[in-house]
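Open question from group meeting: does this chain pack into something compact, or does most of it stay loose? Before anyone orders reagents, we agreed to write out a predicted structure and look at it together. Recording both the input and the output here so the notebook holds the full record.
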Amino acid sequence: MKNEKDIQVVHALPGRVRLKLHQLKDNIAYAGPLQRRLLEVPGVTHLEANPKTGSLLIHYDPTVLEVLALHPSVSSCLGLPPSDAKPVKKDAPPAKG
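C-alpha cells returned:
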C-alpha cells in the first residue's frame, strides 16, 4: 500500500532528477509552496512541478549538491524522514544473445 507522502525517484542524471510525489498529484495548492521551499535549498537552480501527474523535475548544480543529498531536502520539505525517498525499481534490460 502506498503512503500518501511517498516519494519515488523516476529518473536521475547529474544535475537533474525527476520525482513522483503522491502528495503533489491533483494538488495545485501544494505545488507553489513546495517549489518555494525547494528553491531555498542551496544548489537547486530550477523546478517544474506538475500537479496533474504528481511529477517534480528538479534541476540542480551537481558541483554544489549531489542527488543523494537532494533526497533528504525534498523529504524534509514534505515532513518525511529521509529514508522515505525510494528509487523506482525498473526491470533489467533483456540479455543480448
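Observations to bring back to the group:
The helical segments are 28-39, 67-78.
Residues 84-97 have pLDDT under 50 and may be disordered.
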